[in-house]
Amino acid sequence: MDRIINRLGAGLAVMGLIVGLWSGGMWNVYYGDGLHRRPDRAAGRVHVENMHGVPLYTDNREHFILDDVPYLSIGLIGLAGLLHWAQERRVARRSRIRAM
User: Fold this and answer.
1) pLDDT winner (highest mean) among 28-42, 54-68, 70-84
2) I want to staple 16 with a disulfide (CB 3.0 to 4.6 A). Which of 33, 37, 48, 77 is the partner?
3) Rounded to whole angstroms, how far apart are CA atoms 14 and 72?
């Protein structure tokens, strides 16, 4: 069980880092150069993003990727840390019980 929890935590941390790097790359490579500078209601580009003082207009999908995916990355890394903390507590409790 300990090995499974350790591997799950490591996997979540790696996934969080990959998602974070991917979303950062999306900001810099794709969206920084490819987004519209003016709103377009017909295309659904109504969400305003601020890229170093330049307003960029996104649709719902792009807005989700730029604003919500980084929080998913932080959540995955936080969940991995929580699993690690719980595992360490469990191991420490077991060693205290054995010492008695």
Assistant:
1) 70-84
2) 77
3) 13
Place of tokens 């500078």: 37
What are residue 68's phi and psi, to 5 degrees? -100, -30
CA distance 100 to 86: 22
- pTM of the predicted protein model: 0.69
Q: What is the mean pLDDT of the segment spanning 68-96?
A: 87
User: Secondary structure of the chain in the HEC alphabet?
Assistant: CHHHHHHHHHHHHHHHHHHHHHHHHHHHHHHHHHCECCCECCCCECEEEEECCEEEEECHHHHHHHHCHHHHHHHHHHHHHHHHHHHHHHHHHHHHHHHC
**How sure is the predictor about 79, in pLDDT bands with cuts at 50, 70 and 90?**
very high
